[in-house]
Amino acid sequence: MVHTKNLAFYSGDDVTINSSAKDINGNDINVTTGASFSWKMAVDEYSAAIVTKTSGFDTAGSTSNAGYSFTIASSESAALDGVYYHEAQVTKASVTTTILKGYLTIIRDLA
């Protein structure tokens, strides 16, 4: 089940995104073992990714075994300004599931 998460933050900020992984039926996907993640951000859902993450996903704080978090580093957003599409997928036992989508509004930081 795809979780929609729309966020706004300032360019150059470190931003941590927290969510949970659910399958198409809404059941938790145990991501604490044997799962790999990928996250991408692009101008829109049809464009090539401008930021990609395939590591750095944290599942340690998950009580349901489905929770995860990752951080968009300040260096990854420093030069960006505008609205971007983002999407995350988890692969476990050769099954890939889109678990997160939405829009990120990055506001140009004046400092």
Shape: globular
**What is the percent of helical residues?**
under 10%
Number of domains: 1
Cα end-to-end separation: 39 Å
Regions with little confidence, pLDDT below 50 for 5+ residues: none
Structural class by helix and strand composition: mainly beta
CATH class: Mainly Beta
Write a compact overview of the structure shown.
The chain is mainly β and 111 residues long. It has one domain: Immunoglobulin-like.
SSE topology:
Blueprint: E1 3-4, E2 7-10, E3 15-20, E4 35-42, E5 49-53, E6 67-72, H1 74-77, E7 82-92, E8 95-107
Parallel strand pairs: 1-8, 2-8
Antiparallel strand pairs: 3-6, 4-5, 4-7, 7-8
Q: Can you characterise this structure?
A:
The chain is mainly β and 111 residues long. The protein has a single domain (3-107), classed as Immunoglobulins (Immunoglobulin-like, Sandwich), CATH 2.60.40.10. It has one helix and eight strands. It has one helix at 74-77; strands spanning 3-4, 7-10, 15-20, 35-42, 49-53, 67-72, 82-92, 95-107. Strands 1, 2, 4, 5, 7 and 8 form a six-stranded mixed β-sheet that branches. A two-stranded antiparallel sheet has the order 3-6. A hairpin with a 2-residue loop joins β7 (82-92) and β8 (95-107). The longest helix is centred in the last third of the chain and has 4 residues, at 74-77. The chain is globular. The N and C termini lie far apart (39 Å).
Index terms:
single chain, 111 residues, mainly beta, Immunoglobulin-like, six-stranded mixed β-sheet, two-stranded antiparallel sheet
